[in-house]
Amino acid sequence: MTHHGPANEDVSDPRLGKEELRRGCRDRRAAVDHRTRMGRDDRRTEHAMSRLLWAHKVALYLSRGDEPDTVGLADTLVMMGKQVLAPVLTDGHGHSLHEPAWAWYDGKNVRTGLWQIPEPIAPVLPASAITVAEVVLCSALLVDRAGYRVGVGGGWYDRVLTQRTPGVPVWAVVNDDEIVDEVPHDPWDEPVTAALTPTGLHLLGQ
């Protein structure tokens, strides 16, 4: 597994706070042109599919905007007969749920939820539903070589990852220049096991 360093040394400066890192990463993602982004997404999805052939149940977030695309991956998984578990953040009426929740994604019935995040229109399942997942793909803005990630800021995944079945791998979906040497982390932050990028799956925490 190959590791890739940051494109900008400031990205991995541990003296920067998480909010500064989030702003910088969002700015860099927004500056990427559509064609480049599509190419990265296609390659990332190809690598993901080659690694997920064995899995029957996959938990992953549904991407929005200029995030690394996972909707195409989710659709492909569903077409292959696999089950996809996706986060649900609202009750369907614009109100935020107080606790993390999931629903099965069928590739068709989707609504726009909190912060414009797509979510399945399906019976809502508790956070503990993650126990059925054989692989978990989570969102991240940055991830370091120890597996700690800078997420979008809600702490959603830190609350649910502790409930997954022990030993189930967790992949952060990022771009290659978003793997850095070190990011600030808190005691409750759950490290991931690998980073999924356009160049492949890179093991972390080794």
Automatic annotation (TrEMBL):
GO terms for molecular function: 5-formyltetrahydrofolate cyclo-ligase activity; ATP binding; metal ion binding. It comes from the Bacteria. GO terms for biological process: folic acid-containing compound biosynthetic process; tetrahydrofolate interconversion. Belongs to the 5-formyltetrahydrofolate cyclo-ligase family. This is 5-formyltetrahydrofolate cyclo-ligase. It comes from Cutibacterium avidum. Residues 1-42 are annotated as: Disordered. Its EC number is 6.3.3.2. Substrate binds at residues 62, 67. Residues 12-42 have a biased composition (Basic and acidic residues). Its cofactor is Mg(2+). It catalyses: (6S)-5-formyl-5,6,7,8-tetrahydrofolate + ATP = (6R)-5,10-methenyltetrahydrofolate + ADP + phosphate. Keywords: ATP-binding, Ligase, Magnesium, Metal-binding, Nucleotide-binding. It is an enzyme of class 6 (ligase). ATP binds at residues 18-22, 149-157.
